[in-house]
Amino acid sequence: MFRPLLIAVLIALPGVAPAQSQAPVQAESGAAPQRIRSVTLKAGEKCPASTDSDIVVCSTLDQPYRIPKQFRDDAPIKAQNQSWVNRTTTMDQVGRVAGGLPDTCSPVGTGGQSGCALATNKAWAAERRAQQGAATRVP
């Protein structure tokens, strides 16, 4: 019962294959482009057009990022949205301080006092970066 249908399909299959062997468009074929060009534009320059073999990604000098400035979020990332690497690093640092391990600036333990100068320097550098960042932002 199914044998004649199967034989008919197998006979017709070679006739269908040449019809599909035409050169498909890149998006339809799923093939990767030959190259991806990243172009930084100066004021007044126009982005070059993409071709079949390459993709062109343009950015300007004043906005080098692909996400526009109004959509970027500079706020700290919430704890529930952070990766597990950041979470475990934070837990490790909290455990080191609680245990008074070296370079932690903790009043507890024998080696806790050695990290106070390092913590002060890190705090000063972070404050300095925040001041420079606030000075460069345009309201």
Describe the overall structure:
This protein has 139 residues and is mainly α. Among the domains are: 25-67, no CATH class; 98-139. The protein is 42% helix and 10% strand. It has helices spanning 3-20, 26-29, 84-99, 116-136, and strands at residues 35-41, 54-60. The chain has a two-stranded parallel sheet with strand order 1-2. The protein is flat. The termini are far apart. Mean pLDDT is 76; it is low at 18-23.
Give a quick summary of the entry.
This protein is mainly alpha-helical and 139 residues long.
Feature tags:
139 residues, 42% helix, flat
Q: What is the percentage of strand-forming residues? A: 5-15%
Q: Can you tell me the overall shape?
A: flat
How many strands appear in the DSSP assignment? Answer: 2
Biggest sheet features: 2 strands, parallel
Based on secondary structure, the structural category is mainly alpha
Chain-averaged pLDDT:
76
Kindly report how far apart the N and C termini lie. 78 Å
**Rg of Cα set:** 30 Å
SSE pattern: HHEEHH
By oligomeric state, this entry counts as single chain
Unreliable segments of 5+ consecutive residues: 18-23
- Arrangement of strands in the largest sheet: 1-2
Number of helices: 4
